[in-house]
From TrEMBL:
It comes from Kineobactrum sediminis. Residues 33-230 form the Lon N-terminal domain. It is found in: Cytoplasm. InterPro entries: AAA+_ATPase (IPR003593), ATPase_AAA_core (IPR003959), Lon_bac (IPR027543), Lon_bac/euk-typ (IPR004815), Lon_lid (IPR054594), Lon_proteolytic (IPR008269), Lon_Prtase (IPR027065), Lon_prtase_N (IPR003111). This is Lon protease.
Amino acid sequence: MNDADYQQEPDLMPEDYEQHSPALADDVLPETLHLVPIPHRPFFPGQVQPVAINPQEWGATLKAVAKAGHGLVGLIYVEPHEPDSTAIGEFPEIGCVVRLHRPSSSQDGAGHFLAQGIKRFRIVRWLSDAPPYRAQVEYPRSRGDRDSDEVKAYAMAVIKEIKELLPLSPLYSEELKQYLANFSISEPGKLADFSAALTTAGGDKLQEVLSTLPLVARMDKVLVLLRRERELAELQGQITSQVNEKVSAQQRTFFLREQLKVIQKELGISKDDRSTDVELFEERLDALEPTEAVTKRIDDELQKLSVLETGSPEYGVTRNYLDWATQVPWGITSTDHLDLKHARTVLNEHHDGLDDVKKRILEFLAVGAFKGEISGSILLLVGPPGVGKTSIGRSVADALGRKFYRFSLGGMRDEAEIKGHRRTYIGAMPGKFVQALKDVGVSNPVIMLDEIDKIGASFQGDPASALLEVLDPEQNSEFLDHYLDLRLDLSKVLFVCTANQLDTIPGPLLDRMEVLRLSGYVAQEKLVIARNHLWPKMLERHGLRDDQLKINEAALRYVIESYCREAGVRDLEKQLARIMRKAVLELVESDAKKIRVGKKDIETLLGKPIFHPEKLLRGAGVATGLAWTAMGGATLAIESSQVHTLNRGFKLTGRLGETMKESADIAYSYVVAHLKDYGCDLDFFDTSMVHLHVPEGATPKDGPSAGVTMATALISLARNERIKRPLAMTGELTLTGQVLPVGGIREKVIAARRIKIPELILPFANRRDFEELPDYLREGLTVHFARSYREVFEFAFHEHRNDKSLH
Ligand SMILES: Nc1ncnc2c1ncn2[C@@H]1O[C@H](COP(=O)(O)OP(=O)(O)OP(=O)(O)O)[C@@H](O)[C@H]1O
């Protein structure tokens, strides 16, 4: 068969052929047919479909068919088990004779044909049982009465089934749908064949349909196939919609995720909050060495965090807790630099004077170096403001190579500030010590507790006892912060406390501390500190070079003496800063390259002097005492006068504290009782209204140490004899005339030197305190030590005896 052959053939629609092609009627169909086996499924009469017949394999058959001129070939369904091994015994009896057309698009030799199914045939006898197969055939007719009700009913059932099937599957083209819809029940055989061909049933099932000649039986089989097909189609529909749903859900999630990514990118958040949080905490934890208990607790909290709703308040609380708990430097310490030479250099570099304090600190560090660790001791630096307590503390940290953290306990009334709030409170926070460790990032810093003398107590608890827990070496390795609710080891921390005075420090706290006293500076020391430290520091702070601004010694001395009368150097620092600010202004405004400050410039820069050289009050009834307060030492003038002689009386003024009032009463009683001993008129006090006054001054007036001074003022009044030399005294007086020791000898000596009093009377019991003072403080002073008031009287009113004085 060639192209020309089949192009001459009219392409008939299958339904037309029986009615309109008498040439293809049964009687003209050949008795012998060339047979070609086809795999997968049989061909049905009425079916029009492409088939592939390999010209190389079936070349002889194709040639013979072409030669016969009718283009008819028998297609017979055989599923080859193995290629080329089909024996004719496996061939079914019934096949379909088809007319082959060459599709117009086909290329020669490709073996593609359009087959048009014409009629069933049955093999009667094999003429060639090997390829090319040939057989004698007959064309059996369908059996049964096509007009019977049963057949019609079957046909209707088939049509109904098809109609239900059609909308279910997208496999059927619109054209086919229309075509099938036009099927009529009057052609039940054709209907059954088409319906069978329509299904996706397996080859064997279809062959059964093809081989069944009775109409009812065939349609019955077809109905089964159609029903299965419908079920399949429904199932397929379900699968499709499920897949669609899945795909659209996936697409939706994908789309939303993509959107989220873009939004997060815009906002600079790349991950969701929870995973960022958890990652951050785990990362922090990796860098730490917490104990098992701590690790377990933190893990539990992390676990909790991972199940909480991120927007919930509980999430916030847990997150906050973990934020703190993972920032405590569990197990992280810095290495101590226990080198005494280095420590000495650091201390000397930053501080002038303070030799005894430095010595004590070096001793302390030496013990640490010897033991290999500094723990268990607490330093307490006591002294007036601005004497360098903080900066000494800082230098200790520097010398050890430790981190430094400072906070003030002044006015602290709430225990929670030390031990933290319990987590149940809103806005709960850990205590100061946890905060300190978090800030420094190591568990062995130097922590400075400022103003430990000003720690208070209130209804919110007693911070002092909480502090005791922190400072007690027995307890502080297991310090429990209420917020963290975890045991914290504070035993490696070196605590340095500062205070202005010892009196108000709770006893149990004081017991645990090593007290180092910084008592204030005399003018000479201040001068050195100003020149070596304060001035260079201020220059740097103001961005000045030292050749741009210079100050001479006379000017510095004038500032020290006339603008800042204080024990420390804080005011001095402020005055120097004022000088700098003015100098910078002048440098900027006047184009001057450098400025030199002399004594005469000071008043222009700082205004009128605040203090004038102190003048000692002199006269009968006046004596000079020495007082000591948290602000340092000071002189204390005590005046007495005979107001009138009308009656006996004793009056006190000067806003005196209770103890001082008692001292005055004791002094009065003592003097009245011993008038004779001290050469006074015996009836002086009987007829005198005596007024004793302690003039106003910045010094708070309390304490027993003014006793001897008051007695001296009263005796001076009674004897009407003034104390001839500049002389100051201190000491507690008892009713029987004993002189008891007092505190603050160093501060008092410094105060006396400041106003240039060269002679002092001190209680005998304070002799050691005085002797321990550095040489520069003792130098040039005449000091008498008195056991009883009689001796004080001797020193004050008679020329002093050289054997009892100390130079
Ligand atoms: N001996 C000194 N040598 C050098 N500088 C000193 C000396 N004493 C104090 N200073 C300086 O004086 C200033 C004030 O000192 P610091 O703040 O240490 O005083 P403080 O005793 O802690 O005062 P406060 O009790 O008010 O806290 C600091 O700048 C400090 O460097």
